[in-house]
Write a structure and sequence with these properties.
Blueprint: H1 3-15, H2 18-40, H3 45-65, H4 68-91, E1 95-97, H5 106-149, H6 156-172, H7 175-194, E2 197-199, H8 217-239, H9 245-255
Helix pairs in contact: 2-3, 2-5, 2-7, 3-5, 4-5, 4-8, 4-9, 5-6, 5-7, 6-8, 7-8, 8-9
Length: 256
């Protein structure tokens, strides 16, 4: 059997159980996030480049397991979120990374965050989607209120972000956004505790106080996801009319 046939057979076998793929994805994202950010504490720019290459390889391996629709959405998130990082960190200065750069592992890391959140939604399924959404909503409300009352730093920016996030959850009722919130909440708490990145005490130019991390940090990721889903839909639309075999295969996979 040729290598291509073996690859297709293995992929079909794994994909036959979406929940298994989702569980593997969540576990991989969690393990790589915990270990990758910990290792970053001891790296210089060159080391971060190596870590970025490995992170991209981890993302590529997970994308290989998922359906074309999920691949396209995750890659769209990487593109849009990377632009958001340039604006939010390097240009606006709302937060900054340890070496005051954009670490090479961050862009592929956004893809991992999306896959992790989407996979949580798959694991919840239709029966537990309400529970996933409820946990995310309760977490956003509790964190937002705490940031305005009992946490050491006043977090007005975070409260506004939580309000936006709750509106998105209520309006769209898409479990993927709830899953992304939970992944981002853990990521932000862990990353800021390690000092991988630090949020400014107030939003530059607006003067809004914010925590480190802000309770509404996940709202930015939700914006990335909304834009990515819209972008992937446009890619599919063009792929259906353009004579590009690869894109047409993706379009057919997305539309199923």
């Amino acid at each position: 059997m040729r290598e291509a046939d073996i690859s297709r057979t293995l992929r079909s076998t794994v994909r036959s159980s979406p929940r298994r793929v989702a569980a593997l994805t969540v576990a991989t994202v969690a393990i790589w996030t915990l270990s990758g950010l910990f290792v970053d504490r001891y790296l210089d720019v060159t080391g971060q480049l190596c870590l970025g290459l490995v992170t991209a390889a981890v993302l590529a391996a997970l994308l290989w397991l998922h359906e074309p629709a999920m691949r396209l959405q995750a890659l769209a998130v990487v593109a849009i979120a990377s632009l958001g990082e340039v604006v939010g960190s390097l240009l606006w200065g709302v937060y900054s990374y340890r070496l005051h750069n954009l670490p090479a592992f961050v862009p592929p890391g956004h893809g991992l965050v999306y896959l992790g959140g989407a996979s949580l939604a798959v694991l919840a399924g239709r029966r537990l989607a309400w529970l996933l959404g409820g946990v995310a909503a309760a977490g956003a409300v509790g964190w937002g209120i705490a940031g305005m009352t009992v946490l050491p730093a006043l977090d007005v920016s975070g409260a506004l972000g939580c309000t936006f996030l709750l509106a998105v959850l209520a309006w769209t009722r898409r479990p993927v956004y709830a899953g992304v919130f939970l992944v981002v909440a853990g990521l932000e708490l862990y990353g800021t505790a390690l000092g991988t990145w630090t949020w400014r005490a107030a939003v530059p130019g607006l003067g809004l106080p914010q925590g480190n991390p802000p309770s509404g940090a996940a709202s930015g990721y939700v914006v990335f996801d909304v834009l990515a889903l819209a972008l992937s839909a446009q890619v599919v639309r063009f792929a259906r009319v353009l004579p590009l075999a690869g894109l047409r295969r993706i379009a057919l996979g997305v539309s199923r």
